[in-house]
Amino acid sequence: MITENSKIIKNRNIKGEYYQIDFYSPEIVKTVFPGQFVHVQVTGLRDKIFRRPFSIFDVSDDGVLSVIYKVVGEGTDILSKLREGEYCNLLGPLGSSYQSPEHNEKALLVVGGYGSASTYLLAKKLKGKGTIFLGAKNSSELILIDEYKKLGFDVKIATEDGSVGKQGLVTSLLAPYLNGENLKVYACGPNPMMYAMGRMLADTKINVELSLDHPMCCGVGACFACVLKVKAGNEQGWEYARSCKEGPVFNLKDIYLEA
Ligand SMILES: Cc1cc2nc3c(=O)[nH]c(=O)nc-3n(C[C@H](O)[C@H](O)[C@H](O)COP(=O)(O)OP(=O)(O)OC[C@H]3O[C@@H](n4cnc5c(N)ncnc54)[C@H](O)[C@@H]3O)c2cc1C
Ligand code: FES
Q1: Nearest atom of ligand 1 to the alpha carbon of 45
Q2: CB distance 143 to ligand 1 below 6 Å
Q3: 94 and 38 Cβ atoms separated by less than 8 Å
Q4: Quick one: which ligand is closest to 52's CA?
Q5: How much is the pLDDT for 181?
Q6: What does each of the 259 residues of the chain score in pLDDT, given as a tens digit?
Q7: How far is the centre of ligand 1, averaged over its atoms, from the C-alpha of 247 (Å)?
Q8: How far is the centre of ligand 1, averaged over its atoms, from the C-alpha of 215 (Å)?
Q9: Which numeric CATH code is attached to 2-94?
Q10: Domain residues of the chain, as ranges?
Q11: Closest ligand 1 atom to the C-alpha of 71?
């Protein structure tokens, strides 16, 4: 884990409330694995002590680390107004990462909103490529479609209002594809979507990795603000795990799903 004062190379709106920011972070970039995140100290924010976590979307050989973010509150609003040449302090890379398929499984990526940023480095790394299922409330929440197509992914879309792709939830779009042999599912999106996915896949033999988005404070395992329940061999059957340290990527078989 490294802290690095990182110069903003570019910060631009990509669609609606979504932005891409590129930092020059040559030290952090050296050790990034797909699915990890950076904890960003947003320059100009009143409560500087509270960093904001963002998945690492992409990295380049020349030290650029990119994040895709949605403006949802004060921190992301201030971030969207920072300009080229300004600096933010980055802490990272943090957390667990997606594991590449070990048995040549076909990868199915299931994502919502900025979840598609979390799986992009994995998609770049996958040899056999695969299919990505994008779920959103409406078309304004669909991002990175062309980027995944360029990587050779088959892109399937579900929107709740039916404005693009199949109308409905991404889980119903995914369901018919789950009968295939030798699959591995990677998923990242809003927690209700992730827990719905978890419940749908819990009784199958499919290997599933989920990246869970729990609000964080320290980001480095010290404060226990980000815990969730994982299975354990104790009397109650569960214990807490920190989503910033043991996660954010968990294997579904380890997550304790409450009824
Ligand atoms: C591991 C991880 C990776 C993430 N990756 C990305 C990413 O790649 N791109 C991106 O845009 N965002 C990502 N997030 C969420 C991002 O951290 C929050 O949106 C951001 O911290 C909000 O800061 P803010 O000051 O703008 O909003 P705040 O003022 O802190 O909050 C505004 C609203 O957003 C809600 N909110 C805040 N944090 C979260 C959260 N973690 N999950 C759900 N709702 C939240 C609050 O409840 C509130 O309603 C990630 C979060 C985690 C834990
Ligand atoms: S945010 Fe402090 S332990 Fe995870």
Answers
A1: 25
A2: no
A3: yes
A4: 1
A5: 81
A6: 899 999 999 999 999 999 999 999 999 999 999 999 999 999 999 877 799 999 999 999 999 999 999 999 999 999 999 999 999 999 999 999 999 998 889 999 999 999 999 999 999 999 878 899 999 999 999 999 999 999 999 999 999 999 999 999 999 999 999 987 889 999 999 988 898 889 999 989 899 999 998 999 999 999 999 999 999 999 999 999 999 999 999 999 999 988 6
A7: 16
A8: 7
A9: 2.40.30.10
A10: 2-94, 106-213
A11: 26
Q: What is the DSSP string of 71-135?
A: --SHHHHHHHH--TT-EEEEEEEES--PPPPSS-PEEEEEEETTHHHHTHHHHHH-SS-EEEEEE
- Give the distance (Å) from ligand 2 centre to CA of residue 220: 6
| Cβ-Cβ contacts under 8 Å for 248 (sequence gap 6 or more) | 35, 37, 95, 96, 211, 212, 213, 214
Q: CATH classification of 106-213 is 3.40.50.1970, yes or no? A: no
Q: Which residue CA neighbors atom 37 of ligand 1 most closely?
A: 215
Measured CA angle at 85 (ends 84, 87), to 5 deg:
105
Pocket mutation for ligand 2, best pick of 39, 52, 242 (most atoms within 8 Å of C-beta): 242
User: Is there a contact between 113 and 137 (Cβ–Cβ < 8 Å)?
Assistant: no
Instruction: Locate the ligand 2 atom nearest the alpha carbon of residue 219 and give its number.
Output: 1
Amino acid at 146: D
Give yes or no for residue 242 CB within 6 A of ligand 2: yes
